[in-house]
Amino acid sequence: MEDKLKERLDNIQLEIDNVAKRANRDINDIKLLAVSKNHSIEKIKFLKKLGISTFGESRVQELLEKNEKISNIKWHFIGHLQRNKVKYLMRMDNLVLIHSLDSWRLAKEINKRAANNNRNMDLLLQVNVVNEKSKYGIELGEVYDFLRDATELKQINIIGLMTLAPYDAKKYELHKIFRELANKRQEMQNKNFDLKELSMGMSNDYQIAIEEGSTIVRIGSKLFGKRGG
Ligand SMILES: *Cc1c(COP(=O)(O)O)cnc(C)c1O
Predict the structure, then answer these.
(1) DSSP element (H, E) containing 202
(2) Which of 151, 170, 199, 219 has the greatest number of beta carbons closer than 10 A?
(3) Whose CA is nearest to atom 7 of ligand 1?
(4) pTM (global) more than 0.85
(5) At CA 55, angle to CA 24 and CA 92, rounded to 5?
């Protein structure tokens, strides 16, 4: 198990390096988020030994359970977040970023629960770039109003944008989707919103996402191997 994990990690890091060079990007601007959902605490511990310090989970219950079993790592939450579960996450000091802010009601709930816990919370606004019915997230056209209104919520900081590309998209479609999100971020930066992160790209499309400007690639299966293994 350990040899395989190390080999996969090395391969991904090498590939990220190569794509960054090709795209004339600074490697330090691209972070690998290890998505550990469905995978064991043993694998997480081993990757931690190899220097990975931040992991992503998409279900609250699974995150809370894993967090009990390991210390000195940071977590990102990347899945759809139900409002009634926000309170559990806000108690976790080592939860440093939520990628999946997908509604105004959720923003208000996070703001309220963060205040109760005397903390601030960094968030990414999830954008459903091609308006897939099956996906969460706000539309591109709603981003500006959302960011503007969110400046009123003092405990939350929206520090970037996130998207999930359609599962069956072709290469040129992926380029287009990621570019649209990157352009939206630039447009918002021009309006003085400080959006330093662009979370896009997973196991199957992270190279394309990096070419289009991604700063966080969320890699699960390509790193951890098949589910549960
Ligand atoms: C599971 C998941 C990933 C990782 O997916 P892989 O295809 O296994 O790399 C990335 N982002 C989100 C939001 C996920 O739920």
Answers:
(1) none
(2) 199
(3) 203
(4) yes
(5) 130
